[in-house]
Amino acid sequence: MSKQKVAIITGGGRGIGAATAELFAENGYAVCINYKSNQPTANSVAKAISDKGGKCITVQADVSQEADVERLFATVDEELGSISVLVNNAGILKQQSRLEDMSAERINTILTNNVTSYFLCCREAVKRMSTNNGGEGGVIVNVSSGAARSGSPNEYIDYAASKGAVDTLTKGLSLEVAAEGIRVNCVRPGLIYTDMHADGGEPQRVERLKSIIPLKRGGSAKEVAEAIYWLACDKSSYATGNYLDLTGGL
Ligand code: NAP
């Protein structure tokens, strides 16, 4: 019998991360659901997976913190075994605002949570996956955003710029580790129905903007999860360094 593959989903307790964790579990992966603060939602995703016979663990870790990331990966090594897939999904945004009202503290919080975190998790994944280090290879999928292209003026250009950095990380790392058995790609969702928009101060943001989307509707977390899964599985075996836009044509 082949070994069960292991996937880490950062920010897997709700939204796109939760849908991704459930989809990987349905496809036979042992899943680590990482969360930062919201233990009840992470536990309910884990319960939904276990109730269907899937294998998963939840690990609290703030992925913007180096020691937490190291503990997260060490816990997975110990409890699930060697990882095949990292989905860098955890991300934050702040209240809609113009640049002239943004403090250095806010900008740095966005960058450490959305960029430093992805770098740190990629680093720990590459250490384990790289054939240079005796690993068996693997796949990294970064969750970027259509905001990397639009720039999100008058809303959150700090967030948009952080996703631009994710795109560049994806390109550079994909080339750095391509000969070591590791593929690195990213998805760039557009307007997706999740609770993230409430954190920006506008829970109904997708409803307000859906008329400008060529497909005339917001996307679902499940639709993004399906694309993440495709990029992680062998069906996309010749894709690396790519960006898959999921924006309904926007
Ligand atoms: P969400 O519902 O707000 O979920 C984000 C999750 O990330 C939360 O569960 C949160 O955990 C976790 N998280 C945040 N910072 C973390 C940290 N430092 N360490 C560990 N976990 C952390 O957001 P979402 O809409 O599903 O978004 C998921 C990803 O898609 C993000 O990267 C986002 O930028 C991207 N995206 C979303 C949209 C959209 O329209 N929704 C569009 C484009 C891109 P806790 O709850 O435990 O704090």
Automatic annotation (TrEMBL):
The keyword Nucleus does not apply. It catalyses: a (3R)-hydroxyacyl-[ACP] + NADP(+) = a 3-oxoacyl-[ACP] + NADPH + H(+). Pfam families: adh_short_C2. GO terms for molecular function: 3-oxoacyl-[acyl-carrier-protein] reductase (NADPH) activity. Signal peptide: none annotated. Keywords: NADP, Oxidoreductase. It comes from the Bacteria. The keyword Acetylation does not apply. Belongs to the short-chain dehydrogenases/reductases (SDR) family. Catalyzes the NADPH-dependent reduction of beta-ketoacyl-ACP substrates to beta-hydroxyacyl-ACP products, the first reductive step in the elongation cycle of fatty acid biosynthesis. This is 3-oxoacyl-[acyl-carrier-protein] reductase FabG.
